[in-house]
Amino acid sequence: MVRVPDRLLVSKLARKAKNGLVSVADAAEALGVASRGAALKLASLARRGWLQRARRGLYLILPLEAEPGRATVAEDPWVLAQEAFSPCYIGGWSAAEHWGLTEQIFRSTLVITAANIRKKTANLLGAEFRLFRVPGERLPGAIKVWRGSQQVSISSRERTIVDCLRGPELCGGVRTLFAMLREYVASPEFDAAKLLEELSRSANGAAWKRFGYLIELLRPEQESMLAAAHSNLSAGNIKLDPAIRSKGRLLRRWRLWVNAGLTSNENET
Prior knowledge:
Largest sheet: 4 strands, mixed
Number of strands: 12
Radius of gyration: 23 Å
Strand content: 15-25%
Distance between the termini: 82 Å
Number of helices: 10
Helix content: 25-40%
Order of helices and strands: HEHHEEHEHEEEEEHHHHHEEE
């Protein structure tokens, strides 16, 4: 059997790659072999210095000028995330940065994924990721944005806010969430109907409680939003910020333990 030169194999793989990233499925299609054969071929090419393993079943095609033995970083962490943690979307603080909802700079890329992950953090090809696992039914509703020649799924402005209302840790805490919501309602992109639609689709009881309290601070004149929040209140009291150990003061009208100071003139009765 005639051995196909490595350079030719890599050339075929490159035509199927996404920002230089090639999976076992991509390789099987590009080379016309079964998945097991593709996996073995990718591993062999990696051992010979043509590829760098990102994680199981995913490799980066190394540029010809790459120094032997020196790790290569991913061109775009978002594209890498989509290939490594699919099904998923970019969310939380990373989406907030993209939409201009926060000026904070976060070192890691936050990924909302339904993949079977074992750890909440990952470091692939020099890129840091913070992973949050959700049921598959939570993924629909993300939108697509272009990253170079590739499209990547990301939460919309409204989905980003609702995700963070459900879990403030997605944006680094409730103070960042408050700043995000304040930025959103003051922006030309503010759409009360769209935000309420997203809340109705994907908010839980805790998200509605936090939303009612925060929107009352920011836009007390938004009666339709406050009414929607009140009508969706669930039983029980929850913390405004779950990451803060103290309960703070109980705000009965929102069934919320206010344990983070957001303004200097809160009317908590």
